[in-house]
Write a sequence for this structure.
């Protein structure tokens, strides 16, 4: 396990990694998740072997610190991720981002382009104000103190055992602020950033999640959008073969 200070006050973002060749692959989890849980089984596959791989937990999540003073906006998370890559002496990384982690990866590619050479995004948040059915919308519908004071426990009961298993490891205040930041989006918004990035970009959409809004615009901008049959939001669990193929650059 490695760490880097991300806020100037001693708070650390942490990750585990496997050695291998560059460019490194950096796996970034979604809201209330943990990178190794969602991605280690993918990175260990034979078609992805031999590449340096980092499993980074964003601030407030997993094994990383959860300072109460931190804002947990998308920009805050991106800057913390940049601190991790700096400590790891990585440039030109391939970022593999799921959901909120995909949004953070997009913002990082905009703010620190030298750090990112490729994006593989799985149902990444591209727009502000996601629909009410989105997990971030449900969390952000509570006030911060209301969520920390009791709603967090109710949400854990409602989201189901898979998400709850990692969400319970996230700090409630950090989780709420991250959800609010995700609903606020970035400036410029993530979709506009993604369409303008001059790097290889892959976007995976689970078939069970429905059609991706604005797909035509993304494809016109050179983003390779793939709908994965039989998969929902967690494509890496529902269809690991297709997910690994995307990371390996096979489609």
């Amino acid at each position: 396990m490695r760490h880097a200070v991300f806020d100037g006050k001693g708070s650390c973002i942490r990750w585990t990694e496997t050695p291998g060749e560059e460019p490194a692959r950096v796996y970034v989890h979604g809201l209330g998740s943990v990178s190794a849980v969602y991605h280690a089984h993918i990175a260990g596959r034979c078609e992805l072997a031999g590449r340096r791989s980092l499993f980074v937990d964003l601030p407030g999540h997993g094994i990383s610190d959860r300072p109460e003073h931190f804002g947990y906006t998308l920009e805050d998370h991106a800057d913390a991720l940049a601190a991790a890559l700096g400590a790891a002496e990585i440039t030109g990384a391939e970022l593999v981002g799921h959901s909120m982690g995909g949004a953070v990866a997009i913002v990082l590619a905009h703010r620190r382009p030298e750090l990112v050479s490729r994006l593989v995004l799985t149902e990444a948040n591209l727009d502000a104000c996601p629909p009410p059915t989105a997990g971030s919308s449900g969390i952000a519908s509570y006030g911060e103190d209301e969520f920390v004071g009791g709603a967090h426990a109710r949400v854990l009961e409602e989201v189901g055992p898979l998400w709850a298993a990692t969400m319970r490891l996230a700090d409630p205040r950090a989780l709420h602020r991250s959800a609010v930041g995700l609903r606020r989006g970035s400036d410029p918004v993530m979709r506009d950033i993604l369409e303008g990035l001059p790097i290889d970009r892959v976007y995976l959409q689970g078939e069970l999640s429905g059609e991706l809004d604005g797909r035509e615009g993304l494809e016109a901008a050179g983003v390779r959008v793939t709908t994965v049959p039989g998969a929902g939001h967690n494509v890496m669990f529902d269809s690991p073969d297709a997910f690994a193929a995307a990371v390996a650059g096979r489609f």
In short: The first helix runs from residue 35 to 43. Residues 87 and 124 are 26 Å apart (CA to CA). The first strand starts at residue 2 and ends at 5. The chain has a mean pLDDT of 97.
